[in-house]
Amino acid sequence: MIRAALGWLFRIWGAASLLGLALCAGLMLCAGWWLPVHDAPGPADAIVIMGGDARRSAHGADLYLAGYAQAVYVARPFYDPPEPLCELGLPCPREEEVVQTVLSIKGVPRAATRLYGRELLSTVEEAEALARALPPEARTILVVTSPSHCRRALAVLRHELPGRTILMSPTPHERFEPKWWTHQASAKAVVLELAKFAQYYVGKPFRTGVSMRPDAGGRDDTVRDAAGGGGQDAPENAGKYGTDATTPRGEPARTAKPPQAGADGSRGAQSL
Prior knowledge:
This protein has helices at 2-34, 56-65, 83-87, 95-106, 123-133, 150-160, 184-201; strands spanning 46-49, 72-77, 113-120, 140-145, 165-170, 224-225. With 272 residues, the chain is of the alpha/beta class. It has a domain at 46-225: 3-Layer(aba) Sandwich (Rossmann fold), CATH 3.40.50.620.
């Protein structure tokens, strides 16, 4: 009797395992079509360029120049400079500096650009900082990010910005193949996104250690124009690192050549 019961349990467990594997395989195969979200661009109160890849800024500039919004919000993501290269005098700009350069070259006025947040390590931190930065009257947000990042970014933004309309506009300047197993960068993006989705839903997003929520006494991330001066909200690192006197690790900043935009504009931290 016991042996028969154990036999049935093993059969049920085996069938459930096979079903789970089939579901996971199906999700993985369909991820290339499911992750991107292509909303039709429409009039918005703000264009938001999410951090993680400065190539997104070219598409954000195109949306601004097409008249979809009058303000462009630029995240300031976590910055981990390649110090050996910086010490050789090579350009080591922060991602938001590259983004501002691209926007300016494309014709977006500096006064139309708003920087928000500080050292944002994840999509959750970006959304929390954006919720603090946007004025109450900003009800429709046009969001620019990578194709593979759209689905998770939309879920996070809807949670942190309730009552607002979120339109996703993935950049066309970043290659992403629905048949992701045929393209190395797409394959990496899908695996990372699915892992980060799971991490988000278990409530463990990456953080820099200080909450951005107003009720937690978080950092001051007051929005300023990109053309504005320094002060409390100025970029935190100097010379090769920004405008203050220390690196993100608290070390004295060394003198280096002025930052310049990289050829591919992709030196920033990956948005998580």
